[in-house]
Protein backbone atom coordinates (compact mmCIF):
# COMPACT_ATOMS: atom_id res chain seq x y z
CA UNK A 1 0.00 0.00 0.00
CA UNK A 2 1.35 3.43 -0.97
CA UNK A 3 0.05 6.02 1.48
CA UNK A 4 1.24 8.78 -0.86
CA UNK A 5 -1.28 7.53 -3.42
CA UNK A 6 -4.28 6.75 -1.25
CA UNK A 7 -6.43 8.30 -3.95
CA UNK A 8 -5.05 8.10 -7.46
CA UNK A 9 -6.68 9.59 -10.54
CA UNK A 10 -5.11 8.48 -13.82
CA UNK A 11 -5.66 10.08 -17.23
CA UNK A 12 -9.24 10.93 -16.40
CA UNK A 13 -11.44 12.29 -19.17
CA UNK A 14 -15.11 13.19 -19.09
CA UNK A 15 -17.12 14.09 -22.15
CA UNK A 16 -20.77 14.87 -21.37
CA UNK A 17 -23.55 13.59 -23.64
CA UNK A 18 -23.73 16.96 -25.39
CA UNK A 19 -20.08 16.55 -26.46
CA UNK A 20 -18.63 18.98 -23.90
CA UNK A 21 -15.22 17.78 -22.68
CA UNK A 22 -15.31 18.84 -19.02
CA UNK A 23 -12.21 16.91 -17.88
CA UNK A 24 -9.19 16.55 -20.17
CA UNK A 25 -6.62 13.93 -19.24
CA UNK A 26 -6.36 14.72 -15.54
CA UNK A 27 -3.98 12.80 -13.26
CA UNK A 28 -3.25 13.44 -9.58
CA UNK A 29 -2.83 11.65 -6.31
CA UNK A 30 -3.77 12.35 -2.70
CA UNK A 31 -1.81 11.24 0.35
CA UNK A 32 -3.63 9.34 3.10
CA UNK A 33 -4.99 11.73 5.73
CA UNK A 34 -4.38 14.86 3.63
CA UNK A 35 -6.92 17.60 3.05
CA UNK A 36 -6.57 18.54 -0.61
CA UNK A 37 -8.36 21.50 -2.17
CA UNK A 38 -9.59 21.29 -5.75
CA UNK A 39 -9.56 24.95 -6.76
CA UNK A 40 -10.64 26.74 -9.90
CA UNK A 41 -13.12 29.13 -11.47
CA UNK A 42 -16.75 28.20 -12.02
CA UNK A 43 -17.12 25.58 -14.74
CA UNK A 44 -13.53 24.28 -14.61
CA UNK A 45 -14.69 20.74 -13.76
CA UNK A 46 -14.31 20.47 -9.98
CA UNK A 47 -17.77 19.05 -9.29
CA UNK A 48 -17.46 16.68 -12.25
CA UNK A 49 -14.33 15.18 -10.66
CA UNK A 50 -15.98 14.78 -7.24
CA UNK A 51 -18.99 13.11 -8.84
CA UNK A 52 -16.74 10.70 -10.74
CA UNK A 53 -14.83 9.89 -7.53
CA UNK A 54 -18.13 9.26 -5.74
CA UNK A 55 -19.38 7.05 -8.58
CA UNK A 56 -22.32 9.35 -9.39
CA UNK A 57 -20.85 9.85 -12.88
CA UNK A 58 -18.90 7.48 -15.09
CA UNK A 59 -15.62 8.68 -16.60
CA UNK A 60 -15.27 8.58 -20.38
CA UNK A 61 -11.68 7.39 -20.02
CA UNK A 62 -9.16 6.84 -17.27
CA UNK A 63 -8.95 5.10 -13.93
CA UNK A 64 -9.52 5.89 -10.26
CA UNK A 65 -7.80 3.92 -7.53
CA UNK A 66 -8.56 4.01 -3.82
CA UNK A 67 -5.85 2.43 -1.77
CA UNK A 68 -4.32 0.87 -4.88
CA UNK A 69 -7.55 -0.71 -6.20
CA UNK A 70 -9.52 0.51 -9.19
CA UNK A 71 -13.01 1.62 -8.17
CA UNK A 72 -14.34 2.61 -11.59
CA UNK A 73 -16.60 -0.42 -11.65
CA UNK A 74 -17.47 -0.32 -7.94
CA UNK A 75 -20.98 0.89 -7.04
CA UNK A 76 -21.15 4.26 -5.23
CA UNK A 77 -22.40 2.69 -1.98
CA UNK A 78 -19.39 0.35 -1.88
CA UNK A 79 -16.76 3.07 -2.35
CA UNK A 80 -16.71 4.08 1.35
CA UNK A 81 -17.10 7.74 0.57
CA UNK A 82 -18.78 10.53 2.51
CA UNK A 83 -20.13 13.40 0.40
CA UNK A 84 -21.07 16.84 1.70
CA UNK A 85 -23.03 18.70 -0.96
CA UNK A 86 -23.07 22.45 -1.49
CA UNK A 87 -26.74 22.70 -0.45
CA UNK A 88 -26.28 20.17 2.42
CA UNK A 89 -29.19 18.02 1.11
CA UNK A 90 -30.63 17.36 4.58
CA UNK A 91 -34.00 15.62 4.95
CA UNK A 92 -36.37 18.42 6.05
CA UNK A 93 -38.94 16.18 7.74
CA UNK A 94 -36.35 14.44 9.94
CA UNK A 95 -34.74 15.75 13.12
CA UNK A 96 -31.00 16.39 13.28
CA UNK A 97 -30.44 13.06 15.04
CA UNK A 98 -32.55 11.19 12.44
CA UNK A 99 -30.63 12.89 9.63
CA UNK A 100 -27.26 11.94 11.09
CA UNK A 101 -28.36 8.35 11.83
CA UNK A 102 -29.98 7.87 8.44
CA UNK A 103 -27.00 6.35 6.56
CA UNK A 104 -26.64 3.78 9.36
CA UNK A 105 -30.22 2.50 9.34
CA UNK A 106 -30.72 1.97 5.61
CA UNK A 107 -29.16 -0.39 3.08
CA UNK A 108 -27.45 -3.74 3.32
CA UNK A 109 -25.05 -2.83 6.14
CA UNK A 110 -27.65 -1.33 8.43
CA UNK A 111 -26.95 -1.35 12.14
CA UNK A 112 -29.26 -1.95 15.11
CA UNK A 113 -30.90 1.32 16.16
CA UNK A 114 -29.09 1.59 19.51
CA UNK A 115 -25.71 1.18 17.88
CA UNK A 116 -26.60 3.66 15.12
CA UNK A 117 -27.61 6.17 17.77
CA UNK A 118 -24.34 5.69 19.65
CA UNK A 119 -22.26 6.33 16.52
CA UNK A 120 -24.42 9.30 15.51
CA UNK A 121 -24.02 10.78 18.99
CA UNK A 122 -20.23 10.51 18.74
CA UNK A 123 -20.13 12.47 15.48
CA UNK A 124 -22.69 14.99 16.71
CA UNK A 125 -20.41 15.68 19.65
CA UNK A 126 -17.41 16.07 17.32
CA UNK A 127 -19.32 18.53 15.14
CA UNK A 128 -20.84 20.27 18.20
CA UNK A 129 -24.50 19.75 17.34
CA UNK A 130 -25.53 17.52 20.26
CA UNK A 131 -27.95 20.09 21.65
CA UNK A 132 -29.69 20.37 18.27
CA UNK A 133 -30.60 16.66 18.15
CA UNK A 134 -34.39 17.19 18.18
CA UNK A 135 -34.52 20.22 15.85
CA UNK A 136 -35.62 20.05 12.22
CA UNK A 137 -33.17 21.42 9.60
CA UNK A 138 -35.54 24.29 8.76
CA UNK A 139 -34.95 25.75 12.24
CA UNK A 140 -31.16 25.74 11.95
CA UNK A 141 -28.72 28.40 10.77
CA UNK A 142 -26.57 27.76 7.70
CA UNK A 143 -23.56 26.94 9.86
CA UNK A 144 -25.56 24.47 11.96
CA UNK A 145 -26.99 22.75 8.87
CA UNK A 146 -23.45 22.49 7.56
CA UNK A 147 -22.36 20.68 10.72
CA UNK A 148 -25.29 18.25 10.43
CA UNK A 149 -24.31 17.49 6.83
CA UNK A 150 -20.71 16.82 7.90
CA UNK A 151 -21.78 14.60 10.82
CA UNK A 152 -24.05 12.64 8.45
CA UNK A 153 -21.18 12.20 5.99
CA UNK A 154 -18.86 10.93 8.73
CA UNK A 155 -21.10 8.40 10.54
CA UNK A 156 -20.34 5.60 8.13
CA UNK A 157 -16.67 6.22 8.87
CA UNK A 158 -15.84 6.51 5.18
CA UNK A 159 -12.25 6.29 3.99
CA UNK A 160 -12.61 9.42 1.87
CA UNK A 161 -14.60 12.61 2.46
CA UNK A 162 -15.69 14.73 -0.52
CA UNK A 163 -16.89 18.28 0.13
CA UNK A 164 -18.30 20.44 -2.67
CA UNK A 165 -18.11 24.16 -1.82
CA UNK A 166 -19.34 23.37 1.70
CA UNK A 167 -19.02 26.98 2.89
CA UNK A 168 -20.63 28.82 0.00
CA UNK A 169 -23.96 29.38 1.78
CA UNK A 170 -22.39 30.99 4.84
CA UNK A 171 -21.57 34.62 5.54
CA UNK A 172 -17.96 35.80 5.42
CA UNK A 173 -17.20 35.63 9.14
CA UNK A 174 -18.81 32.22 9.60
CA UNK A 175 -16.89 30.89 6.60
CA UNK A 176 -13.60 31.71 8.32
CA UNK A 177 -14.70 30.02 11.54
CA UNK A 178 -16.19 26.90 9.95
CA UNK A 179 -13.28 26.36 7.58
CA UNK A 180 -10.95 26.16 10.58
CA UNK A 181 -13.35 23.80 12.30
CA UNK A 182 -13.55 21.57 9.22
CA UNK A 183 -9.79 21.38 9.00
CA UNK A 184 -9.36 20.49 12.66
CA UNK A 185 -12.26 17.98 12.50
CA UNK A 186 -10.99 16.07 9.45
CA UNK A 187 -7.47 16.09 10.90
CA UNK A 188 -8.67 14.70 14.23
CA UNK A 189 -10.72 11.99 12.48
CA UNK A 190 -7.74 11.40 10.13
CA UNK A 191 -9.93 11.13 7.06
CA UNK A 192 -8.55 11.78 3.56
CA UNK A 193 -10.51 14.76 2.25
CA UNK A 194 -11.06 16.42 -1.12
CA UNK A 195 -12.51 19.87 -0.70
CA UNK A 196 -13.83 21.80 -3.71
CA UNK A 197 -13.71 25.59 -3.67
CA UNK A 198 -13.43 28.50 -6.08
CA UNK A 199 -11.98 30.68 -3.31
CA UNK A 200 -8.18 30.79 -3.45
CA UNK A 201 -7.89 32.21 0.06
CA UNK A 202 -9.97 29.34 1.46
CA UNK A 203 -7.80 26.81 -0.39
CA UNK A 204 -4.56 28.42 0.80
CA UNK A 205 -5.79 28.51 4.38
CA UNK A 206 -6.93 24.89 4.78
CA UNK A 207 -5.33 22.74 2.07
CA UNK A 208 -2.34 20.49 2.74
CA UNK A 209 -1.96 20.91 -0.97
CA UNK A 210 -3.98 22.54 -3.75
CA UNK A 211 -4.81 21.32 -7.24
CA UNK A 212 -5.76 24.28 -9.43
CA UNK A 213 -7.89 23.57 -12.52
CA UNK A 214 -8.89 25.63 -15.49
CA UNK A 215 -11.08 24.40 -18.31
CA UNK A 216 -10.74 20.74 -17.30
CA UNK A 217 -6.92 20.82 -17.12
CA UNK A 218 -4.66 20.86 -14.03
CA UNK A 219 -2.67 24.10 -13.98
CA UNK A 220 -0.66 23.36 -10.82
CA UNK A 221 -0.66 20.61 -8.18
CA UNK A 222 1.43 21.92 -5.34
CA UNK A 223 1.84 23.25 -1.81
CA UNK A 224 -0.08 26.51 -1.29
CA UNK A 225 2.94 28.80 -1.06
CA UNK A 226 4.28 27.64 -4.42
CA UNK A 227 1.23 29.01 -6.24
CA UNK A 228 2.32 32.34 -4.93
CA UNK A 229 6.07 32.12 -5.20
CA UNK A 230 6.49 29.88 -8.25
CA UNK A 231 3.33 29.91 -10.39
CA UNK A 232 3.48 27.45 -13.29
CA UNK A 233 1.91 29.81 -15.80
CA UNK A 234 0.11 33.12 -16.34
CA UNK A 235 -3.29 31.70 -15.34
CA UNK A 236 -1.96 30.51 -11.96
CA UNK A 237 -0.14 33.79 -11.30
CA UNK A 238 -3.36 35.72 -11.93
CA UNK A 239 -5.76 33.34 -10.15
CA UNK A 240 -3.86 33.19 -6.87
CA UNK A 241 -3.01 36.29 -4.82
CA UNK A 242 -4.97 39.13 -3.30
CA UNK A 243 -4.63 41.88 -4.48
CA UNK A 244 -4.16 40.32 -7.89
CA UNK A 245 -0.76 40.31 -9.57
CA UNK A 246 0.32 43.29 -11.73
CA UNK A 247 0.92 42.63 -15.44
CA UNK A 248 2.96 44.81 -17.80
CA UNK A 249 3.26 44.37 -21.56
CA UNK A 250 6.93 44.40 -22.54
CA UNK A 251 9.13 43.90 -25.58
CA UNK A 252 12.36 41.96 -25.22
CA UNK A 253 15.39 42.97 -27.27
CA UNK A 254 18.95 41.63 -27.06
CA UNK A 255 19.76 43.39 -23.77
CA UNK A 256 16.57 44.94 -22.49
CA UNK A 257 12.95 44.53 -21.47
CA UNK A 258 11.12 47.64 -22.58
CA UNK A 259 7.61 48.80 -21.63
CA UNK A 260 5.89 52.07 -22.48
CA UNK A 261 7.26 53.66 -19.31
CA UNK A 262 10.30 51.70 -18.13
CA UNK A 263 13.29 49.77 -19.36
CA UNK A 264 14.95 46.92 -17.47
CA UNK A 265 18.48 45.87 -18.25
CA UNK A 266 18.44 42.08 -18.77
CA UNK A 267 21.65 41.90 -16.76
CA UNK A 268 19.59 42.96 -13.70
CA UNK A 269 17.58 39.71 -13.85
CA UNK A 270 18.92 36.46 -12.40
CA UNK A 271 20.28 34.27 -15.14
CA UNK A 272 19.44 31.06 -13.27
CA UNK A 273 15.75 31.95 -13.18
CA UNK A 274 15.33 31.87 -16.97
CA UNK A 275 13.51 28.66 -17.88
CA UNK A 276 14.75 28.71 -21.46
CA UNK A 277 16.36 30.90 -24.16
CA UNK A 278 14.07 33.81 -24.95
CA UNK A 279 13.74 34.94 -28.53
CA UNK A 280 13.22 38.70 -28.90
CA UNK A 281 9.56 39.72 -28.98
CA UNK A 282 6.48 40.43 -26.88
CA UNK A 283 6.14 39.13 -23.30
CA UNK A 284 4.21 39.88 -20.12
CA UNK A 285 6.10 40.91 -17.02
CA UNK A 286 4.17 40.13 -13.83
CA UNK A 287 4.94 41.07 -10.26
CA UNK A 288 3.01 40.76 -6.98
CA UNK A 289 1.87 44.18 -5.66
CA UNK A 290 4.03 43.86 -2.52
CA UNK A 291 7.12 43.61 -4.72
CA UNK A 292 6.55 46.87 -6.59
CA UNK A 293 7.03 49.61 -4.02
CA UNK A 294 7.56 53.37 -3.77
CA UNK A 295 11.25 54.26 -3.81
CA UNK A 296 13.09 57.48 -4.75
CA UNK A 297 15.32 55.39 -7.06
CA UNK A 298 12.28 53.77 -8.70
CA UNK A 299 12.04 52.51 -12.28
CA UNK A 300 9.25 54.87 -13.33
CA UNK A 301 7.08 57.66 -12.01
CA UNK A 302 3.30 57.58 -11.89
CA UNK A 303 0.28 59.24 -10.28
CA UNK A 304 -1.66 57.52 -7.51
CA UNK A 305 -5.25 57.23 -8.84
CA UNK A 306 -6.73 55.82 -5.68
CA UNK A 307 -5.88 54.20 -2.35
CA UNK A 308 -7.72 51.29 -0.75
CA UNK A 309 -7.28 50.35 2.87
CA UNK A 310 -7.18 46.60 3.53
CA UNK A 311 -6.62 45.92 7.22
CA UNK A 312 -3.00 46.64 8.09
CA UNK A 313 -2.01 47.56 4.53
CA UNK A 314 -2.97 49.93 1.74
CA UNK A 315 -3.22 49.33 -1.98
CA UNK A 316 -1.99 52.18 -4.19
CA UNK A 317 -3.74 52.05 -7.55
CA UNK A 318 -2.33 53.55 -10.71
CA UNK A 319 -2.86 53.23 -14.43
CA UNK A 320 -0.35 51.71 -16.81
CA UNK A 321 -1.12 51.22 -20.52
CA UNK A 322 -4.82 51.79 -19.67
CA UNK A 323 -4.81 48.92 -17.14
CA UNK A 324 -5.02 49.23 -13.38
CA UNK A 325 -1.89 48.25 -11.51
CA UNK A 326 -1.40 48.03 -7.75
CA UNK A 327 1.32 48.50 -5.15
CA UNK A 328 0.88 47.18 -1.62
CA UNK A 329 2.31 49.43 1.07
CA UNK A 330 2.07 49.64 4.84
CA UNK A 331 -0.27 51.95 6.65
CA UNK A 332 2.40 54.40 7.79
CA UNK A 333 3.84 55.37 4.38
CA UNK A 334 2.66 58.99 3.88
CA UNK A 335 1.25 58.80 0.36
CA UNK A 336 -2.13 60.14 -0.72
CA UNK A 337 -4.35 60.14 -3.79
CA UNK A 338 -2.96 62.34 -6.59
CA UNK A 339 0.67 62.09 -5.39
CA UNK A 340 3.43 61.42 -7.87
CA UNK A 341 5.43 58.34 -6.78
CA UNK A 342 8.40 56.48 -8.17
CA UNK A 343 8.00 52.71 -8.11
CA UNK A 344 10.73 50.14 -7.85
CA UNK A 345 10.46 46.43 -8.65
CA UNK A 346 12.15 43.64 -6.73
CA UNK A 347 13.68 41.99 -9.79
CA UNK A 348 14.15 38.61 -8.11
CA UNK A 349 10.35 38.49 -7.65
CA UNK A 350 9.46 39.23 -11.28
CA UNK A 351 7.86 36.60 -13.56
CA UNK A 352 7.91 36.64 -17.36
CA UNK A 353 5.25 34.92 -19.47
CA UNK A 354 4.80 34.45 -23.19
CA UNK A 355 1.58 35.93 -24.64
CA UNK A 356 0.23 32.32 -24.55
CA UNK A 357 0.84 32.18 -20.80
CA UNK A 358 3.95 29.96 -20.59
CA UNK A 359 6.25 30.99 -17.77
CA UNK A 360 9.76 31.69 -19.05
CA UNK A 361 11.32 33.49 -16.04
N1 LIG B 1 -24.64 17.20 -17.34
C1 LIG B 1 -23.87 18.01 -18.05
N2 LIG B 1 -23.96 18.06 -19.40
C2 LIG B 1 -23.17 18.87 -20.12
N3 LIG B 1 -22.24 19.70 -19.60
C3 LIG B 1 -22.11 19.71 -18.25
C4 LIG B 1 -22.91 18.88 -17.42
N4 LIG B 1 -22.56 19.12 -16.13
C5 LIG B 1 -21.58 20.06 -16.17
N5 LIG B 1 -21.31 20.42 -17.44
C6 LIG B 1 -20.30 21.39 -17.89
O1 LIG B 1 -19.01 20.88 -17.57
C7 LIG B 1 -18.16 21.90 -17.10
C8 LIG B 1 -17.67 21.56 -15.71
O2 LIG B 1 -18.75 21.61 -14.80
P1 LIG B 1 -18.54 21.42 -13.23
O3 LIG B 1 -19.88 21.52 -12.59
O4 LIG B 1 -17.72 20.22 -12.98
O5 LIG B 1 -17.68 22.73 -12.90
P2 LIG B 1 -17.29 23.35 -11.48
O6 LIG B 1 -15.84 23.68 -11.59
O7 LIG B 1 -17.70 22.47 -10.39
O8 LIG B 1 -18.12 24.68 -11.50
P3 LIG B 1 -19.06 25.33 -10.35
O9 LIG B 1 -18.12 25.84 -9.31
O10 LIG B 1 -19.77 26.42 -11.10
O11 LIG B 1 -19.96 24.23 -9.88
C9 LIG B 1 -18.97 23.19 -17.17
O12 LIG B 1 -18.65 23.84 -18.37
C10 LIG B 1 -20.40 22.71 -17.16
O13 LIG B 1 -21.22 23.61 -17.85
Automatic annotation (TrEMBL):
One GO MF term: ATP binding
InterPro entries registered for this protein in UniProt: AAA+_ATPase, ABC_transporter-like_ATP-bd, ABC_transporter-like_CS, ABC_transpr_FbpC, ABC_transpr_MalK/UgpC-like, Mo/tungstate-bd_C_term_dom, NA-bd_OB-fold, P-loop_NTPase
PROSITE patterns: ABC_TRANSPORTER_1, ABC_TRANSPORTER_2
Record SUPFAM superfamilies: MOP-like, P-loop containing nucleoside triphosphate hydrolases
Protein name as catalogued: Sugar ABC transporter ATP-binding protein
Keyword field contains Endoplasmic reticulum: no
Keyword hit for DNA damage: no
Species this chain originates from: Lactobacillus kullabergensis
Domain ABC transporter residue range list: 7-240
Keywords: ATP-binding, Cell membrane, Membrane, Nucleotide-binding, Translocase, Transport
Amino acid sequence: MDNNKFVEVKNLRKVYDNGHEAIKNVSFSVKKGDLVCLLGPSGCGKTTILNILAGLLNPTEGDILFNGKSVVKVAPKDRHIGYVFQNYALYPHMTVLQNVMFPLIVGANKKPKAEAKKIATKYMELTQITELADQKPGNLSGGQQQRVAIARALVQEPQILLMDEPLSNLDARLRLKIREEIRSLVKSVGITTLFVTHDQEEALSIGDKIILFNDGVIQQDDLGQNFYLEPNNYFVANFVGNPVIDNFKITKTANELKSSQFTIDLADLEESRFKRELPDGEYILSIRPENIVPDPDGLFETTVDDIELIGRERILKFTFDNEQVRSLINLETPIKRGDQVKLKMRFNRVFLFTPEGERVY
